[in-house]
Write a structure and sequence with these properties.
The structure holds three protein chains of three kinds. Chain A is built from 16 helices and four strands. By secondary structure, chain A is mainly alpha-helical. In chain A, the strands form two sheets. Chain A has a two-stranded antiparallel ribbon with strand order 1-2. Chain B is mainly alpha-helical. Chain B folds into two domains: about 80 residues, Up-down Bundle (Four Helix Bundle (Hemerythrin (Met), subunit A)); about 45 residues. Chain B starts with a helix and ends in a 5-residue tail after the last helix. Chain C is mainly α. The radius of gyration of chain C is 17 Å and the shape is elongated. Classes of the chains: A mainly alpha, B mainly alpha, C mainly alpha. Chains B and C meet through α1, α2, α3, α4 and α5 of B and α1, α2 and α3 of C.
């Protein structure tokens, strides 16, 4: 039990923090270069090997670790020093409830690929996300710097506002799945639904003339069940994590650098890490809620086991499922990372009042409407 | 069995430390509010240990994630000076401390063995969002509806109060 | 039962006392509001503990109501504090004595 949890934690830490994190800093630089018609990072070399700039993350870490850790005069020393950690921790512990694979049977042993399978997993993510505000607030206030303080006031107002709408935008999804447990959500998405099934259900159209419609199916993913909820949730979670184009709290043109402007060396590095860690975390949350988690479209676990289980044995089928599912999950996360990066270099930063107007005047009413429509549809179709 | 109790004492100590840190911090209100966050999060953990899962999450989400952030927001917006004890207040301190000391002593009487009966056996899913939701939307529906009115009134009141000029 | 109920009640009493002492003795309005929040939290803890003792969900519902009241109170209270600060440039309760005779 303890050993299993330790292995899973190690996997998450290694894959997300050891592999994704350095790669994302590289991808961000290279993608910026490509989109701005430059060559991009390619100068860091080790014995003449530049490896397309892949050594830059390592060079970054060496630089950040070897610089002087400054505390500005008049700063609150203790809070200034713990703020970066407070900013980083929520991003890491969110990963605990995300299932990166299903439940697999190997003989007598059952392997469940999630660190903590708690019943209120989605509420946990929302609660942990709400604590992430404090890193920004503490950093800006403790630095004794006006721009830092303005940045943290912006950050706290933006994060409180988008927390509300983020919660409301996925209520419809909870109604569809009937659970808040993330592993159950992923299992629910490991199937397909008939796109034109409602014709039969509502209008009573069936028979040979409509039989061919049964062949048109879609994976029962959140993005197909709740297309509006997907757009709203994606907007909210990016704004809540201050990702571009919602990064008004650190807008260089107005606030120099925002709440972390008085940080140097590895304490700045921790803010930097937190910000880049949020990219795969957002990707993992969106993939789990809306993109089917670890499921493979049109190929459910039962299909795979049925196809290979007889010929090669149950253990082989489970192992194959596990590898395919983890691969599918990581592929979706990479897709979401690519999407966020593309967005980052495409859209200009919103003005601060536009960010708040979008939250309270657009997303909030639309998500409430979404809740009512979804609730009515769920009642109608189920009842 | 002992692990849960051990966690309870750790979080209880954190909660009391955070509360004392808030009340005894006369220099700046921001540090006091941050110390209150520690209390709120510890209480959330204690609720989970007491099988109140939904309440525990809401505690972190609403108290730590929203209410204390609002306090911080206002403290940071307004410039606060260091406060001092006035003579009138000092008398109040002694009276309050004496009265509450008696209250706490009375409360500690509950620690005597046999003050409480054994806790009842828990039904399946006690304190989860399903059970609390069922209770809230059946037995307590009227109270739930009334709180929505309260929230609406508070929202309007807050906007009117904080507005700079009202035509 | 992993948490001794009596200890939870004692913790609740201690937190309530700390909050009450703070609310009675501090002069900063914002700190007084925070102390009131602390007292509400202490009451919540007692409600949750008794709810656990009797395995009855009514206590949880009460806590939900208290959280709503606390949120409403903070919104209105901080609104009052802000408008007070605008008019008096102070957040000392002793200076807000216009209606005191």
């Amino acid at each position: 039990m303890i050993v299993g949890v330790a292995i899973k934690m190690l996997f998450i830490v290694l894959v997300i923090m050891g592999l994704f994190l350095p790669l994302i800093t590289w991808v961000e630089r290279k993608q910026a270069a490509v989109m701005q018609d430059r060559i991009g990072a390619n100068r860091a070399d080790l014995l003449g090997v530049t490896a397309m700039g892949l050594l830059h993350p390592a060079a970054d870490v060496v630089k950040l670790l070897s610089k002087e850790d400054m505390v500005p005069s008049g700063a609150n020393r203790f809070i200034h020093q713990i703020a970066p950690m407070v900013a980083l921790v929520p991003a890491i512990i969110t990963l605990a409830v995300i299932p990166f694979g299903g439940v697999y049977q190997f003989g007598d042993a059952t392997v469940s690929l999630v660190v903590a399978d708690i019943d209120w997993g989605m509420l946990y993510i929302l609660a942990v996300g709400s604590l992430a505000t404090y890193g920004a607030v503490m950093a800006g206030w403790a630095s004794n710097n006006n721009w830092g303080l303005l940045g943290s006031i912006r950050a706290s107002a933006q994060m409180i506002s988008y927390e509300v709408t983020m919660g409301l935008s996925i209520v419809g999804l909870f109604m569809c799945y009937g659970t808040l447990r993330l592993t159950e959500m992923a299992v629910a998405q490991d199937s397909t639904f008939r796109v034109f099934g409602f014709l039969e259900h509502i209008f009573g159209l069936s028979g040979p003339w409509f039989a061919w419609l049964d062949w048109i199916t879609l994976p029962a993913w959140g993005i197909f069940l709740q297309p509006l909820g997907f757009i709203l949730f994606l907007t909210c979670i990016m704004a809540e994590n201050k990702r571009p184009p919602f990064d008004a709290p650190e807008g260089e043109s107005e606030l120099v650098a925002g709440y972390h402007m008085e940080y140097s060396a590895m304490r700045f590095g921790l803010f930097y890490t937190a910000e880049f860690l949020e990219v795969p975390v957002i990707g993992a949350i969106v993939a789990t809620l809306f993109l089917g988690g670890w499921s493979i479209p049109w190929l459910s676990t039962a299909d795979i086991v049925g196809a290979v289980g007889g010929a090669f044995g149950q253990g082989f089928a489970s192992g194959l499922c596990m590898i395919l599912h983890v691969g599918s999950f990581l592929l979706k996360v990479v897709l979401m990372i690519w999407f966020q990066m593309a967005l980052r270099w495409t859209l200009p930063r919103f003005r601060y009042d536009q960010v708040m107007d979008l939250c309270w005047k657009m997303i909030l009413p639309i998500s409430i409407a979404n809740i009512f429509i979804t609730g009515a549809l769920v009642l109608w179709l189920d009842g | 069995m002992m692990d849960g109790a051990l966690f309870f004492y750790i979080f209880a100590a954190l909660a009391v430390a955070g509360a004392l840190g808030m009340v005894l911090n006369f220099r700046n209100a921001v540090a006091g509010a941050l110390s209150l966050v520690g209390t709120m999060v510890s209480l959330g953990a204690i609720y989970v240990l007491l099988d109140a899962y939904l309440i525990g999450v809401l505690q972190v989400l609403v108290y730590a994630g929203a209410i204390v952030v609002l306090f911080l927001f206002v403290v940071m917006l307004l410039n606060l000076r260091r406060e001092s004890f006035s003579a009138e207040r000092q008398r109040a301190v002694k009276l309050a401390a004496a009265g509450l000391g008696v209250l706490v002593l009375l409360a500690f009487l509950s620690l005597l063995p046999g003050a409480f009966r054994e806790a009842a056996a828990l039904p399946e899913g006690f304190g989860g969002y399903r059970q609390v939701g069922m209770a809230l939307f059946t037995d307590w529906l009227l109270a739930f509806e009334a709180t929505s009115l309260l929230l609406l009134a508070a929202m309007v009141g807050a906007v009117i109060l904080a507005k700079r000029d009202i035509e | 039962m992993i948490v001794p109920i009596e200890h939870a009640i004692a913790l609740s009493a201690v937190l309530f006392a700390i909050g009450a002492i703070g609310a009675l003795t501090r002069r900063n309005l914002i700190v007084i509001l925070m102390c009131i929040e602390l007292m509400l939290n202490a009451v919540n803890l007692a409600l949750v503990a008794f709810s656990r003792l009797h395995a009855d969900l009514a206590g949880h519902i009460f806590v939900l109501m208290v959280i709503v009241v606390a949120a409403a109170e903070v919104a209105v209270g901080l609104g009052i504090v802000i408008s007070l600060f605008r008019n008096r440039d102070s957040m000392d309760v002793e200076e807000v004595s216009l209606l005191k005779w």
